[in-house]
Sequence to fold (250 residues):
Amino acid sequence: MSLVYIFATSAMEIDPVRKIVAATDSHSPARCGPNDVVFVVSGMGPGNAKTKAEAALVARTESSGADKPDAVLVIGLCGGLTEELPEGRVVAYTACKSTEAVKPELSCSPRIVDAIVSLLKSSGIDCDRTVGITSPRIATNKQERLTLAKSEAGVVDMESYSILESAAVAGVSVVVLRVVADSLDRALPDLNRALDTTGGLDGRKALRVALGSPVRTARLLAANKRAMQHLTKALEVVLKAPCFASSASL
Fold:
């Protein structure tokens, strides 16, 4: 039996896991095949993710002696930085970078990545290995994504690097499994204008941005919904398999 902490940005991204394991309590492990899973909703942005990851992975085990998880699984949506990764494509990170140039690239567990990619392939689900990059801002247009692609990353998100940092301190292996929700060419509403000081979205400001860009907002929501359907199918396979055993996560 493996203990897996599952991190997601929002309740929307963690809902598929809740349904798969039929769990209602986020704080107690829920059984799913050979895995016990604990949900952690990190909130949006590197700062919020760092706070939640440190509390769950570092402070919790050090202060209470709680069992260290065998692995961390980061799930959710991401933005594509290359034409080779279209909307709806499932990706597993081999490593993650930060837009802060001084920070080193952090690796994901090669063995867990290999196990997940092979498992999904055998189940008829394409899953590409890629390098991700974590940014404090939303890449809203092609030019911003091309700039991020110069780092040699294939996708961008706002939380994974912070979670990998905390997991490294705690000595826990990590894998990131995301779905491309917006492609290289998709133009998004400028939700950066709605980011608060923590890196999350200010609800009122986000509403104003949405009302100012109704077509782009509608297309964004539809793309997110389609991407979540792909993520759910992948998680239904992965969470019921023995991918996270400690012998496979080093």
Remarks:
- Residues 67 and 228 are 30 Å apart (CA to CA).
